[in-house]
Amino acid sequence: MRKEDCFYLGKIVAKHSYKGEVLVKLDTDEPGIYENMESVFVSRGNSLVPFFIERCRLHKSNLLRIKFEEVNDEPEAVNLVGSGLYLPLELLPELEGNKFYYHEVIGFSLMDQKHGDIGVIKGVNDSVAQALFEAEKDGKTLLIPINDEIILKVDRQNKTIHVATPEGLVELYLS
């Protein structure tokens, strides 16, 4: 399985017991939906390795406590600390309305209520305090903030996101 075909679920942050259990910090708003998984892919170097789960349950609300089938002691569990967990993209819960996954909107058009077509989303920069759409229009890159006040409508059928950009933002890039 390739990372491009998966989504990041979380990271193993600690061992939990001498029996090989680990704690995973999940990167999700709904940790409960991942409580009964049968398997995950664990990042080992540049590869994703399937690990089967013996038991899995929530631990202190935002952590997942996992016992993998083949991990039976503390040293084996410690060896996994720091590894990322991944699941295939098809297991992502489907979002509705104006909620979306960043990878899902790559290639969508951005339609501003004042300026019309302001470009095609080429990527999302979420490494800064405010996540940004990276859109391209006429060879220029526009950075549009991602927040509920700006996003008016996500039209999945027509692959378009309708936005109301702040005054002067589009002119800054396209003039």
Automatic annotation (TrEMBL):
Keywords: Chaperone, Cytoplasm, Ribosome biogenesis, rRNA processing. GO terms for molecular function: ribosome binding. GO terms for biological process: ribosomal small subunit biogenesis; rRNA processing. Residues 9-88 form the RimM N-terminal domain. The keyword Chaperone applies. One of its GO terms (cellular component) is ribosome. It is found in: Cytoplasm. Residues 103-169 form the Ribosome maturation factor RimM PRC barrel domain. It holds the Pfam family RimM. The keyword Cytoplasm applies. The PRC barrel domain binds ribosomal protein uS19. Belongs to the RimM family. Binds ribosomal protein uS19. An accessory protein needed during the final step in the assembly of 30S ribosomal subunit, possibly for assembly of the head region. Essential for efficient processing of 16S rRNA. May be needed both before and after RbfA during the maturation of 16S rRNA. It has affinity for free ribosomal 30S subunits but not for 70S ribosomes. This is Ribosome maturation factor RimM.
